[in-house]
Amino acid sequence: MHELKRTACNCGFTIRTHDDETAALMEAAFGGMSRRVPAADAARRIFDVARKGSGYRVTNPAAGESILPDEDALLFHIDKDITIWLQLERRDLFFIHAAAVARGSRVIVLTAPSGTGKSTFVLSLVEKGLDYLSDELAPVDLRTLAVEPYAHALCLKSPPPAPYILPSNTVRCGRRYHVPLSGPADRTRTLAALVFVRRDDERFDRLRPISGASAAARLMANALNPLAHPGDGLDAAVTLGQAVPCFELDIQGLARAGREIEGLFSMLEAG
User: Fold this and answer.
1) What does the pLDDT look like over 188-231, one tens digit per residue?
2) Which of 89, 104, 137 is the last residue of a domain?
3) For labelling, which of 24, 83, 171, 222 has a CA lying 20 to 30 Å from the CA of 234?
């Protein structure tokens, strides 16, 4: 039996597998997440993954048994189980459906609805040397503005456009491409800016500042656990919108948009 032990938001989880191929799949999907040992009283979750015919059986003591038809469904099931579980265990954090990249101790959170292309954008930013925290989940501590990493394999629905290429260790499951990336070192990373990315008919070349009120409204549209916070999450969204500079960015040109993010990091570092 193989065991993969990782941590997210100081909550430990273990994925047990019974064959080398499934163990390698779990390593590719979740191996880049934090190896930090959680606090003794931190919540833990266990997944037992076994092959069942052409699919898989996942047994979870907290949620029972699930039968999944293929690798794609397996990864989706475990990933969503973990993200929902974290929201229940860490109600103190404000969970945003967003990507996050870092340089040094500063984090830029990139928020957008599904299908906007933020995962492809994040892959292009990682190629520029930025640190990968997540492509879909940004849990923020409202007291300290620390951003917790959720560095599962970056997930793409299609290959990136030229000149970007998928790394050789990419795993294809069904119609999705899972790109294993090394997670960040286990140190505090602080939210430094919020960027709301767009890809629509209104094209513009530069980062555009937006007001804290506009940022709060957009955060509410992408908040995952608003009911866990006062004012049904509005207080948290207003706090974040006022705490850091906020922008919107058109990402239809990945190279240009990437230069804007690099420039924003430089501006933030210069104070």
Assistant:
1) 799 999 999 999 888 898 999 999 999 999 999 999 999 999 99
2) 89
3) 83
The chain-wide mean pLDDT, for the chain, equals 94
pLDDT in tens, 183-192: 666 777 999 9
Strands 106-111 and 131-134: unpaired
Q: Does residue 176 form part of some domain?
A: no
Beta carbons within 8 Å of 216's beta carbon, 6+ residues apart: 234, 237, 238, 240, 241
Of 87, 90, 102, 88, residue with least CA distance to 149 = 102
Domain span at 68:
2-89
Element (H, E) at 77: helix 71-89
Q: 255 is written with which tokens?
A: 């190279």
> What φ, ψ does residue 235 adopt, rounded to 5°?
-60, -45
What pLDDT score does 265 carry? 98
